[in-house]
Amino acid sequence: MSTTATTAAAAASARPRLRWGVPAYVVFVAAAIVLAIVVPKTGYVFNISLQATTYAIAVLGLTIVLGLCGQINLAQAAFFGLGAYAVGLGQTEHGLNFWVCLLIGSGLAALFGALLGASTLRLGGHYLAMVTISFQQILTLVLINWIPVTKGPDGVRAIPRPAFFADGSSYLALCIAVLGGLGYLVWHLRDTRLGRAMRAVRDNELAAGVAGIDVYRTKVTAFALSAVLGGIGGGLFAGGFAYVSPDQFSFAESVVFLTMVLLGGVASPIGAVIGTGLLILIPEWLRFLKSIPGLYLAIYGAAVILIVLFMPDGIWGFVRGQFDRFKRATAPSASGDALQLSGGGVGTDTVLEVRKLSKHFGGLKAVDEVDLTIKRGGVHALIGPNGSGKTTTLNVLSGLYKATSGTIMLNGQDITSLPPHVRTKAGLGRTFQNIRLWRSMTALENVMVGAERPGSPVGNDPASVVARARAALAFVDLEHRADEVVAGFSYGHQRAVEIARALASDPALLLLDEPGAGLNSSEKVELRNLLKRISAHGLTILIIDHDMTLVSEVAQHITVLNFGRRIADGHSADVLKHPDVIAAYLGTAPDVAA
Ligand SMILES: Nc1ncnc2c1ncn2[C@@H]1O[C@H](COP(=O)(O)OP(=O)(O)OP(=O)(O)O)[C@@H](O)[C@H]1O
């Protein structure tokens, strides 16, 4: 996803919830419905209004898949078409009820949306865009060529509207009500567990997986939801215009949908509605120029380019930015509760048992038959010179790399072949050498995702999740910055939020990859105190760090790697005096010992 879209999302994340927001929204939608019913409309105004309303529903879908989840979808017109043809053919050919057809159309769109989302298992970025374009083209070809079923290029005519909404005004009012309802749901989706998971996937997929989010399922869900909205919009479109044909659902229309959401602002459903309205109205406003060949298109194109150029976050992103400048800071609320860390519960005194773990990259043995036993409680350090295999070991432990061979047992459970989010559920928490926060989200939202991991002690109760996240932030002395977007935090504070996110998940074992890297001396003192506090709460830590002062102060046990092999293991004081360790750190070739 683009940086600008992320910035827009950041601005949206930072906004305080307005108490008058919901009533104002309801009044606005109600007013639009009343207008649709009472104001007499010519056929022209009706057509424009109906097109804008049904298109806006489909564009809302893009707010989910692109705005929230960061996945490109260039097939929204195909889902729109699926809904439209289901309503058209279902009623005219099969005598089905309008609502049943709308349901079938949305269901079909959801199914194909999920299938398209399934391709994200292997594809992303440009390749994903190509897959969505291919799907769009296939659907267009099917609509044109499968004549016995789709009626081909002639399209489907005389599509009826549902009873009670047969006249234009009431049908338009129905469409506005559906748009209003769906817009409300999409607006609130971002603050649900699923919405936070989508935003986490958008901002940093790797961190999302390690925080316990099923990244793949989240993307598939985003695609399916987006497609459902496309299907509903298309179904209502078909009923409204009574006629559908393949050219209405071509790739060009998918590009129009995408332009609409980018123009209005991808981060918000309001942006989707604004973008849709404008892209439908601008050509109408410029209609008088059509007598001069080419001029109309040139001005239309220039207007869109100028808006995108000067408002990179879309029109609504720009407007929000102006409002946010005058926004008063909200007073942080206190959690009241101290963070509870169970330390992984009871069981054997061994938290992690690693046997003959290897990770090879081609001919390079980055980790070579390493044994590691971590006892419950206390701090265990994994040290070694640059390139000795420490981070690779952590990546294999947390499931980011597949082990070449060996076994990993966490609390007696074999986790060797589990995906990252399932290992997190099993009790692993971790931070990264290069901080991986979700930068457009607030500190609180980042930590809430940690608290929401599957199997977490707070379950699904939103109030408990917030309370635990606040308690975790208080633990790292950052509760006063809970509602700020983390992109503006200092390096030290970002590290602390990352640790709070891992703590909130109540892990059995906390893996910290060079938490001291990049910190100044006072931040290092704070880090040392924090590690001691965590350890005092009974949570077991495996830490990688190059700062031997920090390691010797906090760790009771040290394992040393060199060239991917374990060269020493034991109590800190003994290991730091070990001749092989001294040789490895001074650059002398070691005698490898088990
Ligand atoms: N994805 C990868 N593909 C190929 N080689 C890799 C990959 N990741 C790590 N390596 C190699 O594996 C070896 C161990 O790297 P690793 O990052 O685990 O070392 P490290 O001990 O963490 O080093 P540092 O202290 O500098 O972070 C290095 O030679 C590195 O180049």
UniProtKB/TrEMBL annotation:
PANTHER family: AMINO ACID ABC TRANSPORTER ATP-BINDING PROTEIN, CONSERVED COMPONENT OF ABC TRANSPORTER FOR NATURAL AMINO ACIDS-RELATED. It is a multi-pass membrane protein. The chain crosses the membrane at residues 20-40, 52-76, 96-116, 128-149, 169-189, 222-244, 256-282, 294-319. It is found in: Cell membrane. Residues 352-588 form the ABC transporter domain. GO terms for molecular function: ATP binding; ATP hydrolysis activity; L-isoleucine transmembrane transporter activity; L-phenylalanine transmembrane transporter activity; L-valine transmembrane transporter activity. This is ATP-binding cassette domain-containing protein.
